[in-house]
Amino acid sequence: MLAVFKRSVAEAPAELMSPQVEERERKNGVQLMDSFVSAHSGAVCVKLGDAGAMAYDQNHHPFLTPRQALFSFTSEDIVLRSMFFYVKYLGFSYFPLVCRVFAVVEDIFCVFEGALDNIVTLRQQYGLSKCVNANEVTIVIEAYRTLKDRGPYPADQVVRDLSGKFAFLLFDSKFQTLFTAADADGSMPFFWGTTADGCLVLSDEVGLVKEGCRKSFAPFPRGCFFSTPGGLQSFEHPRNKLMPLPRIDSEGQMCGANFKVDEFTKKGSAIPRVGSEANWANKF
Q1: CA of 115: how far to CAs of 26, 55, 174, in Å?
Q2: Of 4, 9, 57, 81, which one has the greatest count of Cβ atoms within 10 A?
Q3: Quick one: 137 exposed, middle or buried, by C-beta within 10 A (0-12, 13-18, 19+)?
Q4: Rounded to the nearest 10 degrees, what angle do helices 29-39 and 206-213 cross at?
């Protein structure tokens, strides 16, 4: 999976840029997207006008994550639940097999990787109880639409309500808005970086990101989300600021920074809004 967005849509944090990399050493956004399409014969590329492009290959990503692949199981141990496969382990618990899903609803494009373990609750929360085919990507899109239209919850709560292993990328072409996040444990491989022409790159393939961004990349911060209007924020600790941490590779060169919650620095305090008049849409 690869997404490339121009600065007009998503301004990457300055700390993601390595001070030791020259622009000529990196690819621009178009070149990087061409590299992805050339490397994946089954890739689907969606051009988003002047905003950028998204591409994915359903057949490239393994069905199991490396951690889950360590478990051995037989066909008798597999059961079908809510249109997803689960592995019965130790006789009492179930571990979801992660998958990649791409969907388009009206002007909203979304790629979801992973699995949520509270789908039933989220369906009820977002009025999808009667939609038997509602899966993870459907829920993320509906959660975004609810946030954008009515704003009953702040964006951090919307992401925090997602329980499971996940990384998702959503782009609203009508409002030119990017919304992306990764779970608190960093369960899914997810990286971001900057190209020579200043585009923001998001992908689950570290080799591809290195090829295009050289040293100007980093793992996407755990427990965080990034949006066009709000930039990078922590959904676990929404009232705390994030601070960049220098990252040095094995060659001793400075790379794009990691980001960590600053426990001692709070954002501007405000009285939380509650009740039916609460509307966080204008904050997103």
Answers
A1: 33, 20, 27
A2: 4
A3: buried
A4: 140
Placement of tokens 């491989």 in the chain: 189
Bridge partners for 232 per DSSP: 226
Question: What DSSP assignment string belongs to the chain?
Answer: -EEEE-TTT----GGGS-TT--GGGS--HHHHHHHHHHH-TT-EEEE-TTSEEEEE-TTTS-SS-HHHHT----GGGEEEETTEEEEEETTTEEEEPPEEEEEEETTEEEEEEEEES-HHHHHHHTT-TT-TT--HHHHHHHHHHHHHHT--S-HHHHHHT--EEEEEEEEETTTTEEEEEE-TT--S--EEEE-TT--EEEES-HHHHHHHHTTSEEEPPTTEEEETTTEEEESSSTTEEEEEEEEE-TTS-EEEEEEEEEEEEEPPP-PPP-STT---GGG-
Both tokens of residue 265? 């620095």
Q: Contact, 92 vs 105, CB < 8 A?
A: no
Tokens encoding 201: 């790159």
Is the separation of the CB atoms in 52 and 9 below 8 Å? yes
| C-beta atoms surrounding 242 within 10 Å | 20
Report which residue type is found at 230.
Answer: G
Q: How far apart are CA 218 and CA 206, in angstroms?
A: 9
* pTM: predicted TM-score of the whole model, two decimal places: 0.82
Q: What is the pLDDT of residues 67-121, one digit of tens each?
A: 333 233 333 333 333 333 333 333 434 445 668 889 999 999 999 999 999 999 9
